Amino acid sequence: MKLRTAFGAGLISVSAVAGLVSPVYAAQAATLKVDKCSVHVNIPHPHARQTETLAVTSTAPKTTVQVKIKYKTVSHTWRFTTPASTKTTYKFGVGNPTKNYKVTLAGKVTAVPEGYKTGATCSTSFVPE
Description:
By secondary structure, this protein is α+β, with helices and mostly antiparallel strands. Helices cover 22% and strands 41% of the residues. The chain has one helix and nine strands; from the N terminus they run αβββββββββ. Strands 5-4-7-9 form a four-stranded antiparallel beta sheet, with no helix packed on it. The longest helix has 29 residues, at 2-30. The protein is elongated. The chain starts with a helix and ends with a strand.
């Protein structure tokens, strides 16, 4: 009888401590700031073999944004880390894409400075002429 009571009391104590730890962890995760991103291209309707400039911006410096560019038949993935100014640019040749087929660029925040959380997404597109 006493063994059951001791066991029951121990179980209640463990449950009570677990109940206290979970809300603290949840509150800490909730206080992380969202590190947003944006991606933009400078030419909305580029011609074949033209050079396009991609601008990647984040809320915080030293944020890594993974950008996937998807053409009709091929995709490429790039990773950019923003400097202290929170904006970086990348020049690339558009190649010889399918005319009038929307090319999408989708970004996702994959690494952030302390105090921020990952996962934000951003996107843009262009339509070659």
